[in-house]
Amino acid sequence: MNQNFSLDPSASVLLPVAKKEKIDTVWDRHKAMQPQCGFGQLGICCRVCWKGPCRIDPFGDGPKRGICGANADVIVARNVVRMMAAGAAAHSEHGRHVALALLGVAEGRLADYQIRDEAKLRRIAGRLGIEEAGRGSHEVARDVALLTLADFQNQDHHDPCTWIKASLTEKRLDKLAGLEVLPHNIDAVVTGIMARTNVGCDADPVNLVLGGVKGALADFNGMALATELSDVLFGTPRPVITAANLGVLKEDAVNIALHGHNPLLSDLVCEIAHTMEDEARRAGASAGINLVGVCCTGNEVLVRHGIPLAANYLSQELALLTGAVDAMVVDVQCIMPSIAELGSCFHTEIVTTMDDCKITGTRHVSFKEETGAENARQIVTLAIEAFKRRNPQRVLIPDFKETSIVGFGAEAILEALALLDAEDPLKPLLDNVVNGNIRGIALFAGCNSTNAKQDSSFVTMAKKLAAENVLLLATGCGAGAFAKHGLMNQEATLAWAGETLKGVLTAIGEAAGLGGPLPLVLHMGSCVDNSRAVQVAVALADKIGVDLDALPLVASAPEAMSEKAVAIGTWSIALGLPTHLGIMPQVTGSKVVTDLVTETAKELLGGYFLVEPDPEAAAEKLLAVIDERRRALGI
Ligand code: MSK
């Protein structure tokens, strides 16, 4: 039965435990929700005012307009662009948090943080047009932080956000400027979307969707600054060997699961936990403290510190069902409220840490950057106390973990390529794309969804594309899926890569001293780190002298789920990438909106959504797109 829900072997071990103990999981609740609301699935239910809710009859003779007169196109457009705004808000709030922390460090107010990658700070300053030569790192950091924060404050509509200007090709910026979709101020753009989708405002679906595209590009801007400034504060990822899946939990250790997205607290927990090993041992944990990751906080500490990844999104409850997690520490985003109940079924401390992200029934430690190390110490102490209450009889750790080589940010990829050509690091990549050894590049991003069999499409598509010599990059819970299923190690490359791709990955891996190929799928980081893939793509496009929509580069989110994924998918098409969705987006109640994001987008932007739930067919379609682009490039 479990095999229908998830490809993850840990689910097969732990879902029977949930059933026996009468604990509901996400899959039980999904089942209980059937049949799901057809109006919602089509996007034609409107709740923007209290005259409603209204819904459009999509097939029969029922209402074709809501009470105010809004038709299906307007309702669908309003709903989906509000999702884009929510996604942009989430990523950008994360980014603002990091930027404010950098400012605090620069001004000497945050003793628990430091600039860990000064070279990157100086490179960023260069990109943003800030003078750095001969200046102290704190002085430069202050200017970088203030210029970044101006992306939340600028009131000049004609002056686009700094980060997006510094992150795309000139041609793409011109195209987006021509469509008037370049964001000038993240907060203003998000507010603008909420305003124009309010009752009685914008009722032109095309105009609404263009407003949404601007919101999605604000999301890109927020992600780019979040990623880059996090690298300055916490270090830029470099390849590291670690492991993934629930077998990374240890019976004889205090297990602390770090869950959410923002590295501001989790990075300090990593640091402080090292200093508290003796306390854990005194409490009876002979192996000390074992930190593991969940979702994208998991990815953050995975790619920077090699902390093993226990679970991606849909597996977060499974981690608690092991009975071995002593504390699950959560920050923001993608945290199922259900974990409060699951934690209470065991001895597990669920610790919320952000004042705007509490969960009833859990413990809250109010995290502040000023007291970050102390907060981290409090949390580790709670975990050690909980460990003392753990019932060993209820511990069941599935014996599944896969070796994973992770930490391939843009810098790491370019550094690896530089080992083949120090003068011109992009040349080996470009040459191999041109000669066809690398047929194309696919970025796998996004979430897990109960609307699909967990992880399954990721794995099927990756194996098929790799066999066809497509270079694979991954972020977020998609990356988590590949790590858990053993596609981020050298054995996977030897087993699944096509001959020419294998040759390229082997040449780079051996030059990098890995004694074999690079892993089959390169882990670029958390879902906020999709901007890393854009950095590589922009470098490649600039080298060839083309725009992003000319590259044989595609994106895929086989299990897209969150509003953040809606925003990411939309900026992906705005940047010119054909973007596969494995889940039917909630827009099909409007032909206008559906055509806009699948067909018109292709003409206007080069990128477009391609919806295909079947992973084999999806891989075929992406290969066809890659080949079409190769032909257009004359290669
Ligand atoms: S955690 S947004 S389920 S990738 Fe980034 Fe995973 Fe998607 Fe959340």
Describe the protein's architecture and organization.
The model has no long low-confidence stretch (mean pLDDT 97). The protein has 4 domains: 2-55, no CATH class; 72-234, Substrate Binding Domain Of Dnak, Chain:A, Domain 2, CATH 1.20.1270; 246-394, Rossmann fold; 407-633, 3-Layer(aba) Sandwich (Rossmann fold). It is built from 26 helices and 16 strands. The protein is globular, with a radius of gyration of 24 Å. Helix 4 (72-106) runs antiparallel to helix 6, helix 5 (118-128) packs across helix 6 and helix 9 (186-196) packs antiparallel against helix 10. It has a 6-stranded parallel beta sheet with strand order 6-5-4-7-8-9, sandwiched between helices. A 6-stranded parallel beta sheet has the order 13-12-11-14-15-16, sandwiched between helices. The protein is of the alpha/beta class. It binds Broken Fe4S4 cluster.
Task: For this entry, give a set of tags.
alpha/beta, Substrate Binding Domain Of Dnak, Chain:A, Domain 2, six-stranded parallel beta sheet, 4 domains, binds Broken Fe4S4 cluster, 26 helices, Rossmann fold, single chain, 16 strands, 635 residues
What's a quick, concise take on this entry?
It catalyses: CO + 2 oxidized [2Fe-2S]-[ferredoxin] + H2O = 2 reduced [2Fe-2S]-[ferredoxin] + CO2 + 2 H(+). The protein has 26 helices and 16 strands. The chain is α/β, with parallel strands linked by helices and 635 residues long.
